[in-house]
C-alpha cells in the first residue's frame, strides 16, 4: 500500500476566559477564528461570571 504520509499541522487553541479551559480550532470558526473568545454558547452567555485571574 503506497500512500503519502500526511503531515497534519497542530490546530490552534485558545483559553476560554470564563471556564479557563483550552479549546481548539473548529471548521465552523474558519472565517472568524480571530474573533472567537468563548469555547461555547454557555460560556458566552455567562461571560459576566468571568473568573478573576
Outline the structure in words.
Strand 1 (13-15) and strand 2 form a beta hairpin. This protein has a domain at 13-49. The longest helix is centred in the C-terminal third of the chain and has 5 residues, at 41-45. The chain has 53 residues and is mostly loops. The chain has a two-stranded antiparallel ribbon with strand order 1-2. The N and C termini lie far apart (52 Å). The radius of gyration is 15 Å and the shape is elongated. It has one helix at 41-45, and strands at residues 13-15, 22-24. 9% of the residues lie in helices and 11% in strands.
Structure summary, number of beta strands: 2
Instruction: Please give the share of residues in helix.
Output: under 10%
* Total of helices: 1
What topology, given as strand order, has the largest sheet?
1-2
Gap between N and C termini? 52 Å
User: What proportion strand?
Assistant: 5-15%
Order of helices and strands: EEH
Shape: elongated
Main sheet characteristics: 2 strands, antiparallel
Query: In terms of per-residue confidence, which ranges show pLDDT below 50 for 5 or more consecutive residues?
Result: none
> What integer is the average pLDDT?
85
Coarse structural class:
little secondary structure
Write down the Rg.
15 Å
